[in-house]
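Quiz preparation item.
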């Protein structure tokens, strides 16, 4: 009876030792696979006629890093224990690689937000006049420099290095970094949206009641009638803000509600999940709207050369009330990027 019990205990210990890390590793594989499918879907849904910008290049690089992580996890799961370039790879490295990626993603929110903001400000003011090839090379090397810099910081930080070490030889616990940067960035954007909505809620209500959805030049657009004596400059920041809010929330309202739920419930999302392409495009739309609002005195309704958003259709048709339908307009002079 004692021998049988000891055999059962030994068997149960071996079962936990072999199956538990497999379950964790398989879960990581499925999560990264789902994230990659989401990346492909998001990149496929975006508009293809947008201008070159930093955020587009960074989103593509993020999708590539996620794919690279999935390939590494798949290889290690398949071979389980192998030696490559005199380095022995085991299932422990699945956790290690994912932890390194989590720390790297977690420290990227502020730099990406800041650089994208500077990029849009420069593009809007048109102070930089680089050729198309030079602009592509500039964005390409900027993205590479950001990845290398943040990765070097993560690998060189003593505190992070200590946290990457396994606690003991049989430990299957694999903690992941939760980014404080993404929390405060999300909090900042949600609060800005809340204050903007409260400030101009009367104008927003009026616009929502007057807004019409139609098709114009093979695109689905929102348009708001305006009096025929209106000129082509944006005079009221408050009215313009309400138009920005309507356009922004018409696309990103579910995502905004998701951010509110995460903030209120204090949900801790691992950084390797939280840094994703939908989140980056949400930040991208927020930055475009912010740049437009701060430069509303420079906007012209006839100007069609402003930055385009891959998801939010900032093209609002302000049609004179004397025109009964859009078919009577031959030229897109009343199209506004706003």
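Solution:
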């Amino acid at each position: 009876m004692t021998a049988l019990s000891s055999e059962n205990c030994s068997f149960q210990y071996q079962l936990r030792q072999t199956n538990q890390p497999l379950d964790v590793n398989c879960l990581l594989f499925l999560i990264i696979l789902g994230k990659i499918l989401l990346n492909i879907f998001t990149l496929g849904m975006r508009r293809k006629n947008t201008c070159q910008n930093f955020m587009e290049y960074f989103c593509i690089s993020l999708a590539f890093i996620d794919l690279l992580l999935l390939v590494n996890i798949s290889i290690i799961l398949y071979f389980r224990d192998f030696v490559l370039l005199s380095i022995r790879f085991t299932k422990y490295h699945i956790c290690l690689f994912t932890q390194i990626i989590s720390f790297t993603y977690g420290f990227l929110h502020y730099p990406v937000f800041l650089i994208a903001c500077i990029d849009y400000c420069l593009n809007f003011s048109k102070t930089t006049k680089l050729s198309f090839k030079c602009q592509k090379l500039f964005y390409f090397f900027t993205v590479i420099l950001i990845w290398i810099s943040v990765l070097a910081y993560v690998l060189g930080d003593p505190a992070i290095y200590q946290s990457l070490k396994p606690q003991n030889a049989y430990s299957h616990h694999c903690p992941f970094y939760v980014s404080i940067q993404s929390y405060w960035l999300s909090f900042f954007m949600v609060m800005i949206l809340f204050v903007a909505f409260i400030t101009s809620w009367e104008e927003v209500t009026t616009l929502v009641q007057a807004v019409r959805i139609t098709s114009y030049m093979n695109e689905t657009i929102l348009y708001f009638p305006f009096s025929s004596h209106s000129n082509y400059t944006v005079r009221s920041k408050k009215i313009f803000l309400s138009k920005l809010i309507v356009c922004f929330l018409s696309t990103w309202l579910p995502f905004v509600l998701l951010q509110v739920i995460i903030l209120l419930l204090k949900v801790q999302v691992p950084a390797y999940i939280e840094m994703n392409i939908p989140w980056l495009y949400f930040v991208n739309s927020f930055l475009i709207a912010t740049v437009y609002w701060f430069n509303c005195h420079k906007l012209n309704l006839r100007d069609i050369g402003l930055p385009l958003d891959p998801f939010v259709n900032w093209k609002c048709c302000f049609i004179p009330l004397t025109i009964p339908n859009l078919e009577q307009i031959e030229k897109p002079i009343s199209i506004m990027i706003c």
